[in-house]
Amino acid sequence: MPVKVGMVSLGCSKNLVDSERMLHKLKKHGYELVTEPGLADIAVVNTCGFIKSAKEEAIETILELGKLKADGTLKKIVLTGCLTERYKEEAAELFPEADAVIGIGDNKDIVDILDKVLAGEKYIHFSPKLDAELTGERIISTLPFFTYLKVAEGCSNCCTYCAIPLIRGKFRSVPMEDVLAEARTLAENGVTELVVIAQDTSRYGEDLYGKSKLPELLRELCKIDGLKWIRTLYCYPERITDELLDTIASEEKLVKYLEIPIQHCDKDILSRMGRWGSPEELEALFSHIREKVPGVILRTTLITGFPGETEEQFNELAEFVQRVRFDRLGCFAYSQEEGTKASDFPDQIDEETASHRADIIMEQQLMISAENNQKLMGREFEAVVEGFDRFGECWFGRTANDAPDIDGKVFFTSSKPLSVGDYVRIRITDTLDYDLIGEVEAT
Asked: Looking at the domain assignment, is residue 138 inside a domain?
C-alpha cells in the first residue's frame, strides 16, 4: 500500500508553486497524495515566515499536526519553506514533533528526505538558498483552468521592512525559454488563465539579459495557443515603462490589470522604506497608466504604522487614496521583523495604532469600491466560472478585472448548464461592496 502524503502550503502564491513542484516529485516516486493531512501518513508543511501573522499561522498549523501525530493519526511531519529557512536550527528546536526540518534549497530532494524519515531518521538540513529550483514539473492544485507562473526567485530590492531577501536570497530570473516551455505545458493541460508572479515581476530578466524582459515575455506568452487571460502581479512603480504599458494595451490576451505595490505615498517614509516615489510622482504615474491603458484596473498595497509615521503623514496617505481611487487595494499594519533595517528604527508605532490606521484605509477603500461597482450596473462582462454556491443557489466566478484569491467575485444565475472553467457573458444586476451580482446573458 503506498504511503499517503498531505501537503499544507501556507503563505503566498509563489510558495504554492514550490509546493506543487514537490507534489509532482512525490507522486512520480509512488507516494499517494491526499488533500487532508488527517488522512495522511506524512504531512509536509511549506511554511510562510514573512510577517508576524504568517509566522503565527505556521506555528498553529504545526502544533495542530503535532496533536495528530501524538494520537497516532499522522506518522511523520516534514517542515520546509520560509519559516524554516529564516530560523533554521531554532525552528528545529522549537518543533520537536517534526521529523525533518529543511530549507528551501532542499525542496528538490523532498523524495529522498521523506524516504529518510520513513526509515526512522531525524533529518535537519539547510542547503544554500540559491539551490532552490527555478523551474520544474508541477501538479496544479488550484482550479484546473488557472495557475500561477513564477518567473523569478528571490529579491534584490532590500526594502528596509522586508525579510524576503534574507529568506529567499538575491533576485534570480528563470530563463525565458524555460518560462515559455512551462507555460506551453500548462496550456496543453487545459490552463486558460496564467497569473505571472515574482517578488518583483517588473524586474524580470535584468539579471540574465541586462534589462527588463517582462514586455517581451508577455508578448511571447500571448502567442501560446489555449491561453485566454494573462495577468501580471507585483510590478514596482519605478519599473513601469511605456513598453510594458503599450504591450498590455495592445495584446488581447493580457487583461487590462496591473498590481503596483507602493506601500505609502509620503516621500520621507518611502525613502526610509527604501522605496521610490512621492505623492506627485505616484499620482503622475497612475494618471499616465490610465491614459496609456484605457479601462485599466489598478491594484496596490499599502503599509500603515511604519516607524515614525506621524498623524499628518497617515492623513496624507488617506487623502492620496481618496484622490487616486484605486480599483483594488490592500492595506496592512507594519510588522516589525527582526533582521530587517526598519526593526531597529526609532519611533516604532504600537500595533494597535498601526492596525487602526489600516482599518481606516480599508473602510475608505470599501466606499470607493462600492461607488465604482455602482457604475457597473447594467453593463456586460465576460467572466470565468469557478463553482456553484449551493447556499446561494447560484454560480460564482471572476471577471478579468479580478485576480484569483485577492479580489472580488461575481455571483450569477444561468438558465443553461455551466462547468467550472467556462467563460460566459454576464450582465450586472446588483452589487455587494467588493462583489458583483449578475445573470448570464441568453444567447
From this structure: no
Do 112 and 45 have their domain in common?
yes
Number of structural domains (the chain) is 3
Per-residue pLDDT of the chain (443 residues; tens, 9 = 90+): 899 999 999 988 999 999 999 999 999 999 999 998 889 999 999 999 877 888 889 989 999 999 989 998 999 999 999 999 999 988 889 999 999 999 999 999 999 999 999 999 999 999 999 999 999 999 999 999 999 999 999 999 989 999 999 999 999 999 999 999 999 999 999 999 999 999 999 999 999 999 999 999 999 999 999 999 999 999 999 999 999 999 999 999 999 999 999 999 999 999 999 999 999 999 999 999 999 999 999 999 999 999 999 999 999 999 999 999 999 999 999 999 999 999 999 999 999 999 999 999 999 999 999 999 999 999 999 999 999 999 889 999 999 999 999 999 999 999 999 999 999 999 999 998 899 999 997 66
Range of the domain at 298: 146-373
Query: Could you tell me the maximum CA-CA distance found in the chain, to the nearest angstrom?
Result: 65
47: in domain: yes
Instruction: Give the CATH number of the domain where residue 50 resides.
Output: 3.40.50.12160
The CATH number for 398's domain is 2.40.50.140
Which helix (H) or strand (E) segment is 229 a member of? strand 229-232
**180 found inside a domain:** yes
- Strand-pair partners of 256: none
Would you call 124 exposed, middle or buried from its count of C-beta atoms within 10 A (0-12, 13-18, 19+)?
Answer: middle
Q: Cell digits for 103?
A: 530549507
> Side chain identity at 237, as an amino acid letter?
P
Alpha helices (runs of H) in 338-420, residue ranges in sequence order = 351-374
